[in-house]
Amino acid sequence: MITVDYKDKRPIYVQLVDNISTMALSGELKPFEQLPSVRQLAVSMGINPNTIARAYGELERKGVIYSVAGKGSFISNDLSVFAEEKVKKVEEKLRVGINEAKNSGVSKERLIVIVGEEYDRD
Predict the structure, then answer these.
(1) Domain span at residue 99?
(2) How many CA atoms lie within 13 A of 87 on its CB side?
(3) Measuring CA to CA, which residue among 82, 62, 77, 66 is closest to residue 30?
(4) Which residues are paired to 65 by β-bridges?
(5) Do 38 and 59 touch, CB atoms closer than 8 A?
(6) What is the predicted pLDDT for the residue at 11?
(7) Which comes out higher in pLDDT, residue 19 or 83?
(8) For 21-54, what is each residue's pLDDT tens digit?
(9) Which of 15, 21, 36, 88 has a CA-to-CA distance to 54 between 20 and 30 Å?
């Protein structure tokens, strides 16, 4: 289910992009699955249609969805480029965190334990 959190400080369109991207990468939204139309999603969520259109445009630019004129928007069957982009962002965040841990005196062994515990947590 596509959702937004009104307490989140990120713009709604960014939340929609992140939410739909995550759902596509996790398989919750299947390749070639049709998304609700801009109008349908706007009405069901009580969000301005321009916000939905902006999110869909960004998703299409990133290769998460594709649009067919007169038919709608669909989940892409090849998310490899987008998935690689997400991995690179995670790697960069990890580098920053690892450097911060090193500068704070956290040992490599302790850091490995922390990462393992966090990875295994639900």
Answers:
(1) 80-120
(2) 7
(3) 77
(4) 75
(5) no
(6) 97
(7) 19
(8) 999 988 899 999 999 999 999 999 999 999 999 9
(9) 88
Q: Hey, what are 114's tokens? A: 């922390």
Structure tokens, 48: 């301005």
Residues in contact with 31: Cβ distance below 8 Å, sequence separation at least 6, in sequence order: 75, 76, 77, 79
Q: Which amino acid is at 91?
A: E
> Which pTM does this prediction carry?
0.72
57, part of any domain: yes
What secondary structure does DSSP assign to 59-115, as a single string? HHHHTSEEEETTTEEEE-S--HHHHHHHHHHHHHHHHHHHHHHHHTT--HHHHHHHH
Q: Which CATH number fits the domain that encloses residue 25?
A: 1.10.10.10
Give the integer Cα–Cα distance in Å for 100 and 12: 31
What is the number of domains present in the chain? 2
Mean pLDDT of 108-113: 93
